[in-house]
Amino acid sequence: MAIPLLAYSPSCPNQRVDALGARDDEAIIYSTDDLFTPAEIDNLINAAYRQIFFHAFKWDREIVLESQLRNRQITVRDFIRGLLLSNTFIDSFYNKNSNYRFVEHCVQKVLGRKVYSNAEKIAWSAVVMTKGVKGFIEDLLNSEEYIENFGENTVPYQRRRILPSRVLGETPFNITTPRYDAYYRDKLGFPQGIWQEAVRTFRSYDKQPRTGDPSLFLKMAETINPRAGKPSFTSTSNIDIEKSVPYRGR
Q1: If exposure means fewest CB atoms within 10 Å of the residue's CB, which of 95, 97, 147, 222 is most exposed?
Q2: pLDDT, mean of each 10-residue run, the chain (250 residues)
């Protein structure tokens, strides 16, 4: 039995502050309202993949949904819905996280902001528990907050990331919120330090060896493994005196 969304008190972070400039923190906004060329549509599709998947490999792309969006058979909101319900997103974010973590990811990606509090995570987690993933995604996309900020034709983006009064804005969501939570990172053995390059030392040109310098032959000399010859040893019991001593006639 589905239950209504539990009440929670919104906090007042950056995204609830009105923009001081003409644009929302100078973010690049992709919308089909003003995109017409195929190249512009490609940029919009790639922006949607970055927002939802962070990075989409070739096998992660939803070719059918892309074709429908290019032909204006579906809206951007429908395209976002398809990405959220795709096997890639479900396997990467829902199957490998708790409901709380999954809600946190979806609020950041769909509504373009951080969750207000634990109360909001609990409220949306209850929706996931009662309505399932599809019902939760539908409620997010049909929410007044999503419609007011992105509507039918705009790709969601991180809102209020940069404030004119601050030198440093908010860190991108994909950095502050890794795909897997601590439990699954431990199971997968993350993080792992991987050294990919050999340490190289820099020597100025005037200190580099010139032609004929003995140091240039050092590696070649190290490959040589000289061995001293072993002296031959013969026991006296093995010597035939009669045959060894030359015979001298009279």
Answers
A1: 222
A2: 65 53 61 84 92 85 93 94 94 88 92 88 92 94 93 88 54 62 63 58 75 79 74 70 65
CB 114 within 8 Å of CB 39:
no
Nearest alpha carbon to residue 109 among 135, 146, 138? 146
